Amino acid sequence: MAVKTIADMDMQGRRVFIRVDFDVPLTPAGGVSDTTRIRESLPTIRQAIDRGARVVLASHLGQPRGKPDPALSLMPVAACLVELLDREVVLTDEPVGDGAKKVVADLRDGSVAMLENLRFAPGEEANDEVFSRGLASYTDVYINDAFPITHLAHASIAGMPRFVSAKGMGLSMEREVKALGQLSGEIEHPFVAIIGGAKVSDRIDLLESLLDRVDSIFLGGALANTFIKARGGTLGISPVEGEKLALARNFLGKAEQARVEVVLPSDLVAAPNADAPGGQVVPAMRVPNDLAALDIGPATVQRFAAGLAHARTVFWHGAMGAFGSTAFAAGTLALAQALAAVRFGLTVVAGSDSATALRRAGVADRVTHVSTGGGAALELIAGKKLPGLAALES
Question: Are 231 and 308 within one domain?
Fold first, then answer.
């Protein structure tokens, strides 16, 4: 794949369109409550400014369903950027149109404009060619720095780049592709993958793609319930994908043939529901009829930690239980600590819950790479072609 980067681009005096992912949470008062995603793209934006570009930023926010929604305007994001960049950021009143065209035309070297929420236009999510061409008319150089949504075939991600000759990755995007790409290349063994989350159906492609690379796969979260059930366990009122039991059994058979160890929880923390103040430790194969598995138990934590102690490459995605509840976050937080203890090797983490666990455990700086992308990271590791990356090939 021949994809250029921002370092390859001539920017002086040119209009540089940077697709960022500023889909950030807002406060009830309409401010930005978490600036993490904005800060991720600041190095790319600053480099473009410093090199004399006329910067046009574009992002979506929320799900306005193809029509303007004042509650999802990018105005709070633009105000936040003014503070972070210490310079004026002009927000257009629409994603495309005469008003946006004039704002872009009035840009000078080193100045910054931001298009209003791209999803205010139905053409964005529909990957409409007319909308794509409209966006392309605003730029001489296209930069994608929005890795978390690079797996979406939307106009500003996959359609627009076809109509721009100079295109490449931003610094955040480049860092993601390089780090995640290492997992598909020559890596050190033992290679352990830890996969949590909710559904087998959302993870089976990833799991099967890992079989020819990893030595062990540790499963947790509601995802593990279906595999425990497939091995004859009783899960009480825990969520189980009954229609995926055959798929789980088939995967376990493939893993055995590939000589990949699949480690399921040996004990679980169970309670009536995630709102309970706490739970009880029960055998993973025998969850009481009136309880649901909501976290991995202490013996499982110990087993996972022991496996990680000898690993030289680790990939982790997904919580080990109902991580959103403080009462059932202990297993995921303990796993974060165990991963941080891997001192010699490559450790890569993807997914919002996993990243949050690292931050809450205070160990995010002790991991090789924490991906900003969830779905995009999983698809890239599974060997799928991301529409946003394919659009940058030259």
Answer: yes
- Please give the sequence-ordered ranges of beta strands (E in DSSP) within the chain, or none if there are none: 15-19, 54-58, 89-91, 112-114, 141-144, 166-169, 191-195, 216-219, 261-263, 267-271, 280-283, 292-296, 313-317, 346-350, 369-370
Pairing of strands 216-219, 261-263: parallel
Range of 15's domain? 6-172
Q: Which residue has the tokens 């139905």?
A: 122
**Beta-strand relationship, 280-283 and 346-350:** unpaired
Residue 205 within any structural domain of the chain: yes
pLDDT tens digit sequence for 140-164: 999 999 999 999 999 999 999 999 9
The pTM (predicted TM-score) of the whole model is 0.90
Model pLDDT for residues 272-331, shown as the tens digit of each residue: 999 999 999 999 999 999 999 999 999 999 999 999 999 999 999 999 999 999 999 999
Total of domains in the chain:
2
- Shared domain for 183 and 267, answered yes or no, is yes
Residue 58: strand, helix, or coil: strand
Chain-centre distance of CA 150, in angstroms?
A: 10
Among 138, 144, 143, 140, smallest CA distance to 165 is for 140
Confidence of residue 1 (pLDDT cuts 50, 70, 90): low
Q: Could you tell me the CATH number of the domain that includes residue 38?
A: 3.40.50.1260
Domain boundary among 144, 172, 200: 172
Residue 107 has pLDDT above 90, yes or no: yes
User: Do 64 and 188 lie in a common domain?
Assistant: no
